[in-house]
TrEMBL record, chain A:
Transmembrane segments: 21-47, 81-103, 110-131, 177-196, 217-234, 269-293
Organism: Actinoplanes oblitus
Pfam families in UniProt: BPD_transp_1
Swiss-Prot/TrEMBL keywords: Cell membrane, Membrane, Transmembrane, Transmembrane helix, Transport
Name of the featured protein: Sugar ABC transporter permease
Main localization (coarse): membrane
ABC transmembrane type-1 domain segment(s): 77-290
Automatic annotation (TrEMBL), chain B:
Domain of life: Bacteria
Lineage: Bacteria, Bacillati, Actinomycetota, Actinomycetes, Micromonosporales
Annotated region described as Disordered, given as residue ranges: 292-311
Compartments, as annotated in UniProt: Cell envelope
Entries under Gene3D superfamilies matching the protein: Periplasmic binding protein-like II
Protein name as catalogued: Extracellular solute-binding protein
Keywords: Signal, Transport
Amino acid sequence: MTVAGTSGVRRRSGRNTLLGWSFLLPNFLGFAVLTMVPVVLLFYYAFTTWDIFGGAEWTGLDNARQLVHDAGFWTAMRNTLYYTAFHIPLTLVVSLGLALLLNRRLRGVAFFRTVAFFPYIASIVAVAQVWNMLFSPGYGPIDAVLRAVGVDNPPGWTTSADWSMPAVILVGTWREMGYFMLIFLAGLQTVPGELYEAARVDGAGAWQRLRAVTLPGLRPTMFFVVVLLTVNSFKVLDLILVMTNGGPGQSTLVLAQYVYRKGFEENQFGYASAVSMVLFLLCFLVTVVQFVVNRRREA
Amino acid sequence: MKRSTAAVLGAATALALALTGCSSGDDSGGDGTDTLTLAGWSLATTPEFKALADGFHAAHPDITVELKEYDPKNYDTQMIADLAAGKAPDIYVQKTLKNFYTYQNGKQLLDVSDVAAGLGPDTNGLASYQVEGKTYAIPYRQDSWVIYYNKALFDQARVKYPDGSWTWDDYAAAGRRLTAGLETAGSQALGVYQHVWQSTLQGFALAQTPGADLSSGDFGYLKPYYTRAVDLQKAGAQVSLGDATTNNLTYQAQFGKQRAAMMTMGTWYIATLLSQQKSGDADRFEWGIAPAPQRDKSTTGTSATPVTFADPTGMGINPKINKDKIETAKKFLAYAGSADAAKALAGIGITPANTDAAADTIFAVPGVPTDAVSKFAFTKHETRPENPVGKYTAPLQNILNDLHTAVMSGSTDIDTAIAEAQDRARNEVLNK
């Protein structure tokens, strides 16, 4: 009886393992073949010169040395940091504000939540194209309104080297705010209602309740959102590619597009891999710092 | 469902996905020596590939040419990936001359010097595919940039048609007069449309300026061309680059819908305009072509040869082709560069590399302008390449595209932009 029981448990355990693997395998195979292997290979190609045909030639630190003196790379780096520095706080504030606003029992709240989330699921090409038309200096409604209210020289938005990055940041924020609003909304459900009641009893105003109850209660959510936003900002590509293609000039050229240019337009896959490695290390380092800071705060 | 059944199903799904993902399904066509595979793009709207395949099959009924379609916007990326994976067709088109170096230097093209030797002396664009005395692709079409003009709008603005004597200054002056004249006549059309591509200025500047050399990293030759274009834009005689890009304007709509009286464009637009006027996508109006404006008077007039630009379009052979098919593939290339193919292409409005052999055919196509200036513009010109073949062409063109958008958007003045581009060319490309 005992022996039969043990073998039954083993069989069940074996079946469970098999079942687990069977569900994991399709996704894992895809991940391994299409993501993991290329990423691992990238670290090798970063030290080679390779034009995709034939073998890659090992060049040691040549790509790294070239990067240091590559003005285009540094422009892309500065633009990426510019985008990140403004996109993260702006999206945080807007998405949290939306979440707080739509966390109340309002008539039609589901409709407004859907409206706020809609840009995230809309086609990026369509979004970029429509915003480009809105921003058009000659025919766009945004500058038309600005002129109507007395602004003599409205911004050139995506057609001006000074305004193209702010325009892209605005659209990036508009696009992502709904997604992060949803995450914040989920986070807000985890903050105990009793804490708000206690704060009210203690005479705390709305601002104090936000600072003393809501924000501390949202810390894990906030951490997740900041990490996600950071990585998204560092690797921004699609929006910029469609809206400005990195221009005018190099005013919106970001690291991800620089990788694309070097690799797929100029066929310097070794050098493009070196730039990708920098982008990867940048994301990795910033995320590690965020983890460490978060852990210290929690401790 | 029992767990064991679920497990089996899951495992089967995984296996199926893995096999599907890793299968090497060869879709490059049959391996029989009587079948060739040829790469093309937008087959439904680009009939030249089918015209060549059908024409060759008619001459060689025992050989079939199968077309493999690629995405026109990502043609080179997809082709490079297919070549690297060993899945590319037997014959593939050099869609842009800019990437010829990558294919040739990467040993992805067979030597077809013997085919080139058999071509007539009238074949344009052959030199672009020759490296160290060997030929690696055979041009089958060679467009060249000309002026397209709308006769009705010129008449409305009371401006004389271009007659082949125009320099760029004449072109700009006519653009202003047209804009003013059209406004007076109550039309909203502008004098000029300049499309958003860098080639609309840089192609002419490189081709027409004596001593201009892309790979020298000295881009001073661009200045007069940009100064004139920016002035035209400021004068309101042409749509600004910003409005053209933000509103995704197409040159086909700008000229075809009579929003501009003239524009410079490649001769490939002849076929498009004819077909759009037929389908209703373009208005029906009388139009003509004239030689591209010239840098100075020395190359104007019908007794001179105007200098213009455009890259040839050629075909090469994939070195991984079945060895038994190489001779057949060479036969196809010889046909693509022949006078017969030139006539077949001209019949559908395409400008073949062997232009002289096909001039009569193209002017017989209904709707093609047959006035003396149009005929002169189509048949007589010195067409220089937009993208001289070389290791640095692609990265230098990227730098010059940044210059183009910076200057035409009004973000940077031309002197500063040229200085920046020259610095970048030295640091990022030439001296690396």
